[in-house]
Amino acid sequence: MVDLAVNVRAGTPPSWLAREIADSLGGLAAYPDDRSARRAVARRHGRPDAEVLLTAGAAEAFVLLARALRPRRAVVVHPQFTEPEAALRAAGHRVERVLLPACDGFRLDPAAVPDDADLVVLGNPTNPTSVLHPAALVQDLARAGRTLVVDEAFMDAVPGERESLAGRRDVPGLVVLRSLTKTWGLAGLRIGYALAGAATVAALQRAQPLWAVSTPALAAARACVTPRALAEAAEAARTGAADRAYLVERLRALPGGVEVAGEAPAAPFLLLRLPDADAVRLRLRDLSWAVRRADTFPGLGREWLRVAVRDRRTSDAFAKALAAATA
């Protein structure tokens, strides 16, 4: 099977990163010490150390937020990654959904978010829509008394990380979540981080189990924010953007009504709408291609599929398979 259902960059982790992680194994007898990794991440985003919390993947941060916060009115903007809502509900919070419509390209409308919501969660760029919301529009959601959580797990796949709020310290109530598992292929290692005001980080840290991030994961965090790593990620983002544009062009040229969501997809995957998508997915499986069903995301139905962006040779082969599956 060619796996286009996953959204982790192909060919990762690179050998130099694997060596950094392997070299850390000699220190496993000691408890993890996150101070140097925290400092490195803080330096990467121009923040004090106290405004960084390292987590076991960005998904852990959603659980910590659900444990630490006591929102009166929590709102999650969908379609998006389902873990934030699941974590809030598991912690006993009521959650309201704001559904961005496909007819408007799943673009963010700040006016759709209730004024009295004191917790708002959205992704940027958003999984699974691949929509990159303008930073100014996201910032419009911030206000006194509200926690604004922006999941930027795929922002390092955006050339120049344009529209990122990770370095902004002047936006009230802002919490930015980042992941190192997508670009670097570290989903099994579990490493991410939260960026927020020092008081918010302290509250999240109190909700976090002791030594939640392992020594190898801390080594990865340090390695992934070095100048060398940032340059490699930037080049991968540029290459990925060109490969995504190529795949969009191929898919939009297919007969059979394949629709690519959004005017300018920005993540390393595409959201597709096509007739009889359920059956098409099964036909693709028979042709040895795996794609992600998208009806598990609130606001989407069975006519949607998510497809990872790969190199152009793979895209050519996939376009041919999709044409056969939709014939």
Structure commentary:
It is a single chain. The protein is an alpha/beta fold and 327 residues long. The chain folds into 2 domains: 2-6 and 229-326, Aspartate Aminotransferase, domain 1, CATH 3.90.1150; 15-226, Type I PLP-dependent aspartate aminotransferase-like (Major domain) (Aspartate Aminotransferase, domain 2), CATH 3.40.640.10. It has helices at 15-23, 35-44, 58-68, 83-90, 135-139, 198-207, 215-223, 227-252, 277-286, 312-326, and strands spanning 2-3, 52-55, 74-78, 95-99, 119-123, 147-151, 174-179, 192-196, 259-260, 269-273, 289-290, 292-293, 304-308. It has a 7-stranded mixed sheet with strand order 2-8-7-6-5-3-4, sandwiched between helices. Helix 5 (135-139) links the parallel strand 5 and strand 6. The chain is globular. The protein starts with a strand and ends with a helix.
Which features would summarize this protein structure in a list?
327 residues; alpha/beta; Aspartate Aminotransferase, domain 2; 2 domains; 7-stranded mixed beta sheet; 4-stranded antiparallel beta sheet; 13 strands; globular
